[in-house]
Amino acid sequence: MSRQNAVQNQKEINTVSGKRPTAGRLRGIPMAVLLLISVVLMFVIIRYYYVELDDQLFAERSTHLVEITEKVADIFDITIARSWDSVNTMEQFLSVEWTRAQTEDELMQYLKDMSRFQTDQGSIFLLLDDDFRYYSSDGNKGYWRELPMIIKSQSGTQELITTLPYQSSSLTYLCFLKQLPEKPRLEATGKSISYVMLAVDIQSLNDGFSVNTFGSRGYTYIVNKDGRTLLAPNDADSRFKAYNIVSALEEDEFIHGGTIEDLRACVNSLESCVLEFRSEGTEYFVSCHSVGGEGWNTLIFVPTSVLGNSADHMLGSTRRFFVALGILLIFDFSFLVFYLTDNRNRRLMEQKEESNRQLKAAAEEAQSANRAKSEFLSHMSHDIRTPINGIMGMTEIAQKNISDTARVEDCLGKISNSSQHLLSLINDVLDMSRIESGKVTLNSEPMNMIATIDECASIIGGQLLNRNVEFIREFDNYEHPHLIGDELHLRQVLINILGNAVKFTPDGGKIYFRVKETGLSDGRADYHFEIEDTGIGMKPEYLKHIWEPFSQEDGGNRTNYKGTGLGMAITKQFVDMMGGTITVESVLHEGSKFTIDLGFDIDSNAVLAVDESAAEDIRLDGMKVMLVEDNEINMEIALFMLEDVGITVTCVENGKLAVEKFEQNEPGTFDLILMDIMMPVMNGLDAAKAIRALDRPDAKTIPIVAMTANAYDDDVRNAREAGMNGHLAKPIDTNLLYHTLNEMYHGKQAD
Questions:
Q1: What global pTM score does this model have?
Q2: Could you tell me which CATH number the domain at 445-602 has?
Q3: In degrees rounded to 5, what are phi and psi of residue 141?
Q4: For the domain bounded by 98-206, which CATH number is listed?
Q5: SS3 call for 528
């Protein structure tokens, strides 16, 4: 019985062990095939999306780079046009003022006098006779042996541009040569002056055409139709230093936009194109755009990593997302074969759709950021070129009507207005750049709120001259006017908002400026500011973005007003840094109201005396000033300002000469020193330190005032640490200059 049971059990075991593995293998084979198909399909999908997104990013980067390249080409066009204007101006003065034969000495003196018409540092005026003997504005004479061959090769051309090494130096110059229709003669040589030339130092051009948009990691070239390099950056990577920059790329791998032959064809035909290539393991973008009518091209090289850090991050994130999504889908698909229901399948599809929506939203956000930057660059190009055109145009009109005093005065007024507008645009861009880089710091210094508010009101009142706009001041409850805070940035905040009110309020409207001390909290005085106007107002949609950089309202009358779109963003950042709040209310076609609340520490050490209302008595006649300035134009301007009020001025060109001049003269020779900062040989900071270190009684006491274009907070701090007593930012405000000199001159006399 037991044997039969054993046999029966063995049969059952054999039956089970024989059938079940067979069934498992039959189910395992379709499962493996299904998983393989799923993996292949997923990687195909991943590859498709990745390639499509990569192509889209290339197109967006190309569009941005084309805009930058076009703007660089426009700037170079302006440089060429300005150089030809200088040549034409020189020709006109020759035809008007050269009324008789000249000796060589008279000619050299004439050229020296005419050097004031040079448009750029590093440029030289030259006159050449029939034998190509040249006379230059820098006092040199000689023969320019290369020119006859070049002029002969350009047969029939009255004007040409070429690059040549200057005969009296090791530098290479871009030369603008024009044949004179009327040739004056020299008595001494019997030769006629046949050509006028402007030679511009290529080094200075290279320094001026760096692409700061890409953090100085982009390289700008000017090449001819054959690819030969005419202008090249000094700091370019060694792989891009070549006689023919296009030929130097022949061994590189082109990965987007075309091949090396496509690039060569664009350069030769003066067409625009953008390509991406790989050189020595690094990927680059190259953008080509023609320059004016000279048969030249602008080439800009930018590392792909610099042009699209955020885009590369998004691309990498997308790739990782798809890989993770693929793994998840493969797992879920296997799970669905055995366990999931139709309901779970629907939920999976919903998850996929949500992922796609998120990806689409991220792509749209990136596109929006690129559009904002592109629009900003477009606006800036227009807004900068407009005042520059006004300055150049009014200058030309004034030169041609020099005897018409009224016309010249009108031109000078318009030049001043255009210059102020250009300066405000530049200041906005620089302020936002410093804010984003974290270089802006707040000062905690004694300030008088009454004086600050009066100054802001005075500035706005000046802007409203000849305008039919009522400016209403409502100031009260100044119980604690003596405070500790950052007066400079507070004034900038108020002027930004008040300036907008002036800009957007038409004639017949009103502007209200209300300031009130609202109370005390924790030993601080709380101030409430309101600026309200009856101007054109803002749309509700724009109010949501008013504090964003580059934000400008489209449509309506607001598009008629120029600006960077940075003013409100800068204002908001400054208010936040000062620990305050700012809000805005606006109704389209009715007006706007800005409200600011700030707290300030009370200055317990302030002298609580009634401020004198009488105007300051400016008395500078007889004052003796040493003016230290290396730029001739800036020195001429400052010299005029000082001598106009009776100041005796001694001019020196750098810090080293200033120290020597001070040391060589007796105490009391100079009452004050006006010192530039950025100078050759010795800068202004080192010169101030050297003067303070001298062993003489007035070395520690003579006032030294910085007069410089370095106008930020850390620049002021550096000047004080170097031993300077004051700081004046260029362009110089005449009233501020006289106020500072008066204060230090009479304060010194009182001591």
A1: 0.38
A2: 3.30.565.10
A3: -135, 155
A4: 3.30.450.20
A5: strand
